[in-house]
Fold these 2 entries.
Entry 1:
Amino acid sequence: MKRKCNLCNSTMNIVFEKDMYNIGKAKFNLVKCLNCKLIFVDPLPNSTQRKEMYSKDYFETNKLSGTREKGYMEDQEYYEQDFKNILRIVKKYKRNGRFLDIGCAAGYFLNLARKYGYQVHGVEISKFASEFARKKFKLDVFNGELENAKFKDNFFDIVVAANVLEHVEDPNKFLLEIKRILKPNGILVIDIPTYVNSPYYKIVKLISGMFKKDKDVAKMFKVNQEKMPYHLYEFSPRNLKMMLKKLGFKLLETKADVPYPEVIFSKKGFKYRLIQLHFIILNMLARTLNIKFNHMVAYFKK
Ligand SMILES: [Zn+2]
């Protein structure tokens, strides 16, 4: 039976990318809902497969899907720059209050938010990362799924889900839980990749052929390697707005950018310069015209 769409409940979908991902020999397609156009993984990885995906290695060696040279745990400064940009916007809407980061990983964002004057809490599914956050930054981090943290109703002023919504099995249920724990007029920040829905994705697929022999770059473009289905959903900006609107959230603003892949920016030679230029131009267009080529941050109000 076909998987039901998490946004509109339709079971009418078509294959968007056949065998997009694999875990060992198990293959996973990306399918597209014919009704609302939401793109998602089919079938869903089972619990054993998910455990394999989110081992300690995910944080130590995943290196942001191959775009960064350092592992996540050694790369605090890089991530802090993005977090500062988000906190500047959050400050416009809420100057202080209770701040929750769902999927807080090593706690870099929470550590920074505390310096900006918020009372911070975290939820993190990785035992390894949550222990790191507690030890290194003395943060209050719940290790497990959001639903199991059992926060009180209307508890938080700000909830952040950065690079999380595309990973959860049931985004609709997940957002309902956020709605329950967020105060009326509370702010929800969703940081999410948008590239599969963008024309940019087609360009990347074209370029990737040029780099088949360069191991680092091939890894970034996910050529000839194991590709686990970390992203269970590929939201377009429109799909994200639709889902949040259905749940009663109001969109405040969105910001787009194209992060620079370090594996390409650290290299010399004409071929790399060409690709670097491509990223610089895309990022400029994304930032000035707010075009969602690759990645966006959306701010909502409950
Ligand atoms: Zn749908």
Entry 2:
Amino acid sequence: MGNGAKAAQKRERNADKNAPKGSKSQAKVNEAAKSIICATCKQTFLVTTRAPALEEHAQNKHSKTMAECFPGAK
Ligand SMILES: [Zn+2]
């Protein structure tokens, strides 16, 4: 009996971190897919944000190029 309760508790705690069955690395991938992060100010943008909007942010906020603020953005 005690074992079952413990397992349920553990499962609950895992669900809390919203990582159902996936590994940590998978969660990381999902997180990366969700957002683009400005390397300068760490502001996050949806991955669907278009390049011109990112470029505008880089130029207006930091007077930098898009490549400088978003090295990973295509
Ligand atoms: Zn920024």
